[in-house]
Amino acid sequence: MTIREITIAKLQQLSESLLQEMTDFIDFVIHKHQVKIADTQPDETLVGKWPQWFEAVDSLDVSPPEAVSNYQ
Asked: Which of 5, 23, 51, 59 would be 1's cystine partner, CB 3.0–4.6 Å?
């Protein structure tokens, strides 16, 4: 028997109230894994924006702050 067949056999033994709970749990598990997949796949617009950001930062003119000698 495959894991799918074993799971279906177990589900067939449950009462209607427990089936509703299992349906809710299955929905939760599916949603959780869809969120994980979405989090691990970078957004294409962000992938394109990173090189633009690095180019902009690399072209910034950075000068050291002026020294202040106001001792009181």
From this structure: 5
Is 41 domain-assigned?
yes
Length of the chain: 72
Domain for residue 37, yes or no?
A: yes
Task: Locate 27 and state its tokens.
Answer: 């929905």
User: What are 8-33's pLDDT values in tens digits?
Assistant: 999 999 999 899 999 999 999 988 88
Write out the residue range of the structural domain in which residue 45 sits. 29-53
Tokens of 20: 């509703």
CA distance 20 to 6: 19
Would residue 45 count as lying in a domain? yes
